[in-house]
Amino acid sequence: MYQLPRIPTVDQIAVESRAASFKKRSIKNESKEAALRMALSMCDLTTLEGMDTAGKVRMMCRKAIQPLAGHDLPHTAAVCVYPTMVSVAKEAVGDSGVLVAAVATAFPSGQSFLNIRTQEVRQTVAAGADEIDMVISRGALLAGEYAYVFDEVAAFKEACGPAHLKVILETGELQTLDLVRKASQIAIDAGADFIKTSTGKVQPAATMPVTLVMLETIRDHFLKTGRMIGMKPAGGIRTAKEAWHYLVMVKETLGDAWLSPDWFRFGASSLVNDVLMQYQKLKSGAYQSMDYFSMD
Known about the structure:
Blueprint: H1 12-21, H2 29-41, E1 44-46, H3 54-65, E2 78-81, H4 86-93, E3 99-103, H5 114-126, E4 131-135, H6 138-142, H7 146-160, E5 164-168, H8 177-189, E6 194-196, H9 208-225, E7 230-232, H10 240-253, H11 269-284
Parallel strand pairs: 1-2, 2-3, 3-4, 4-5, 5-6, 6-7
Helix pairs in contact: 1-9, 2-11, 3-4, 5-7, 7-8, 8-9, 9-10
C-alpha cells in the first residue's frame, strides 16, 4: 500500500511573497517577440462545453495550427476536447505537430466508478488522444485517503498506454498549500507525466502561489530521482504579461530545460488572443480590437 513520503510543510507567507516577486519583473523590448512566441507554443487551445460541435472543434484546430494568418508563428502545443471529439480533432490537426488532448475520468467532478473511468481512458486513447487530462478524487484526498488517490492515478496511467497523463489536482478545492504539495507528490509518485492545477470549472483556478508549490514539488522530485515532470497551470491566465510572470517563475525554479511545450503548458484559450494582440502591436505599433480574433 502506498505511503505518502515525508514532505516539508509549506511556508505560505514565504510562498506568497516569492510568487508576488515574479510579478515585478519586466521584459526588454528586444525579448518580447521571443517571449510571445514561446508562450503561444505552450498553449493548449481548449473547448469543453456541452454545446461543442464538430465544426467548432475543426475551427479551433485550424487556429491551433495557424494562430494568425500571414505570420510565421508557432502552432499551439495541443488542442483539448471531450472524448467524443477526439477523432474529429485528430483528423483536423493531421500531421501539423499539434497534439490532441482529451479530458477523461468523469471530468470535471471525477465522481464515477473507477472501472468506468478507467475504461473511458482506454477508449479515449483508442480514439487517437495523445494526452489524457484526468481529475483526481478530491473527496478522497481531503479525507486523507492518499493510497486510494495514488491507486486511481496509477490505474489511469496504465490505461493510458502510449499517451501522456496530465493529472488535474483542482487546487481551488484543496483548501491549503500543504494539501496542494501532498497532492502533487502523490500524482508524481503514481506516474503522472504532467501535474495540472485546475479543470477551469472551479474558482480559484491557477494562481502563482499554487503553481510555485507545484513547481517546487517537481524540482525536489527531479533532484531526488532525475525524472522530469511537466507542469500545466490552467484557468485564469488571460494576458501575455501574466504568462511572462509564469515563465520567469518556471525558469528560476526549474531552469531552462522546462521552458518547452514538452514540459510546460498553459491551459488558457483566452491567453492566445492576448498573445496575438500583443504580437500585432509589436509588429504594427497599434492594437487591433479583440473582435478580430476568434473566441476559440
